[in-house]
Design goal:
CATH topology of the largest domain: FAD/NAD(P)-binding domain
Radius of gyration: 24 Å
Distance between the termini: 74 Å
Number of domains: 3
Helix content: 25-40%
CATH class of the largest domain: Alpha Beta
Strand content: 25-35%
Family: Belongs to the class-I pyridine nucleotide-disulfide oxidoreductase family.
Function: Catalyzes the reduction of glutathione disulfide (GSSG) to reduced glutathione (GSH). Constitutes the major mechanism to maintain a high GSH:GSSG ratio in the cytosol.
Strand order of the largest sheet: 1-2-3-4-5
Structural class: alpha/beta
Number of helices: 11
CATH architecture of the largest domain: 3-Layer(bba) Sandwich
Largest sheet: 5 strands, mixed, barrel
Oligomer: single chain
Shape: globular
Catalytic activity: 2 glutathione + NADP(+) = glutathione disulfide + NADPH + H(+)
Organism: Gomphillus americanus
Keywords: Cytoplasm, Disulfide bond, FAD, Flavoprotein, NAD, NADP, Nucleotide-binding, Oxidoreductase, Redox-active center
Length: 471
């Protein structure tokens, strides 16, 4: 039977945050006939196996930490049972499922036709979609957006790596592992290591260098690594893994080398090994060769210009599939600006996302926030003589009445440039950093200087006031 054929103005491949934002604006605001395709669950990585369920789990870990510290404030709390991981997981799953439904309803409200299936190109302006029910639909479109995101990567050179899980598998765990190893130094591995540790798992974190979060400022790297070790996370520095195997008892054994064991050793009795070594673009079965010479990077990401144009006319790409700034709000912002440019008329002919000074946070323990250049990046760009750095390290008031062993550090850094001391980088670590950064991000995006910070009256007593009183 020949496939059903559909025609549209705009076809969006990928139902993640960026693709859906673009599709909804194109249809709901500008009236373009739009079709959106998603092969799994609406909302993409962020909603299903990323930011949303991660943050819910981080809240659970934070509650566990608060319960532990409650006695310092005079509360006598006796836990009658351990943390119920399974019950929590099912509530988290139900929340995500509700969000899937909301996303589908929003598409309906904005008159975007939704196809739940897997798409591959059959030409530069046509795709074939194999629907979940087994039927096939052909779609011809005037313009096509690729917003397929990415997927977690398993190491290819480690024997038995398939015995471990990725960040996707983290959200499938029905019970809390008693002993877990995570491999990776990026925000995914660091966040999940912090959550496992706070929720009571014996946690081992394997990193290739002496610190983790190596794209962040050295202050963040060094202090967060130290804090994780203080909290009891076993950080295996300068490590390399060679083999993962499963015993007859179902336990895992990881073979590795690190700075303490240069000749190699094993970590036994593991319930779970999580690979957090990075993500790859979801392009494998798109059949891109059928659209012509579409340019890709060595890692497979789609190359785009500042307007999200690929090298093929009328084919666009945004979000994680491009590998530029892999953050959900970035994809949403880029998607909306693209819809404006394509369908909003002449007034939006130059609409594009400014990728500079994008704030980002890590939901570690403690939280981390950053915007702009790191100190080394600023010195390289402007020169040592044109850069000044303001630092502050202190104990947040919440910990003021606690024993020294309970206190977490808070550290702030402001990197400024030129005689006007324009703020070109802000790096914060401590309680509330994620919420704190949003407002400061607005100021820095507007070009704030150190004097602008100084002129702002402090809110007392807060940690944030330190940023407007730095000396």
């Amino acid at each position: 039977m020949a496939p059903t054929t559909k025609e549209c103005d705009f076809l969006v491949i990928g139902g993640g945050s960026g693709g859906l934002a673009c599709a909804r604006r194109a249809s709901g605001m500008y009236g373009a006939k739009t079709i959106a395709i998603e092969s799994r669950f609406l909302g993409g990585t962020c909603v299903n196996v990323g930011c949303v369920p991660k943050k819910v789990t981080w809240y659970a870990a934070s509650v566990a930490e608060t319960l532990h510290l409650a006695k310092e404030y005079g509360f006598s709390i006796k836990e009658t049972a351990p943390f119920d991981w399974a019950a929590f997981k099912h509530k988290r799953d139900a929340y995500v499922k509700r969000l899937n439904g909301i996303y589908e309803k929003n598409l309906e409200n904005d008159k975007v036709e939704y196809l739940n299936g897997r798409a591959h190109f059959t030409g530069p302006k046509s795709v074939e979609v194999k629907l979940q029910d087994g039927k096939t639909v052909a779609v011809n479109a005037k313009k096509i957006l690729i917003a397929t995101g990415g997927h977690a990567t398993l190491p290819k050179d480690i024997e038995g790596s398939e015995l471990g899980i990725t960040s996707d598998g983290f959200f499938e765990l029905e019970t809390r592992p008693k002993k877990v190893a995570l491999v990776g130094a990026g925000y995914i591995a660091v966040e999940m290591a912090g959550m496992f540790n706070m929720l009571g798992s014996e946690t081992h974190l394997f990193i290739r260098h002496k610190t983790f979060l190596r794209t962040f400022d050295p202050m963040i790297q060094e202090k967060t690594t130290e804090e994780y070790e203080r909290q009891g996370v076993h950080v295996h520095k300068e490590s390399a893994q060679t083999k993962l195997e499963k015993g007859s008892d179902g336990k895992l054994t990881l073979h590795y080398k690190d700075s303490s064991n240069p000749d190699g050793t094993t970590l036994t009795g593991l319930d779970t090994v999580l690979w957090g070594i990075g993500r790859s673009p979801e392009v494998e079965d798109l059949n891109l060769k059928s659209v012509g010479e579409i340019k890709q990077t060595e890692k497979g990401h789609l190359e785009v210009d500042e307007y999200q144009n690929t090298s093929v006319q009328d084919i666009y790409a945004l979000g994680d599939v491009c590998g530029k700034v892999e953050l959900t709000p970035v994809a949403i912002a880029a998607g909306r600006r693209l819809a404006d440019r394509l369908f909003g008329g002449e007034q939006f002919h130059d609409s594009k996302l400014d990728y500079t000074n994008i704030p980002s946070v890590v939901f570690a323990h403690p939280e981390i926030g950053a915007i702009g250049l790191t100190e080394p990046e600023a010195r390289k760009k402007f020169g040592d003589d044109d850069i000044k750095v303001y630092n502050s390290s202190f104990t947040a008031m919440f910990y003021s009445i606690m024993d020294a062993s309970q206190k977490k550090p808070t550290s702030f850094k402001l990197v400024v440039q030129g005689k006007d001391e324009k703020v070109v980088g802000l790096h914060i670590m401590g309680e509330g950093s994620a919420e704190m950064l949003q407002g400061f991000g607005v100021a820095i995006k507007m070009g704030a200087t150190k004097k602008d910070f100084d002129r702002c009256v402090a809110i007392h007593p807060t940690s944030a006031e330190e940023l407007v009183t730095l000396k």
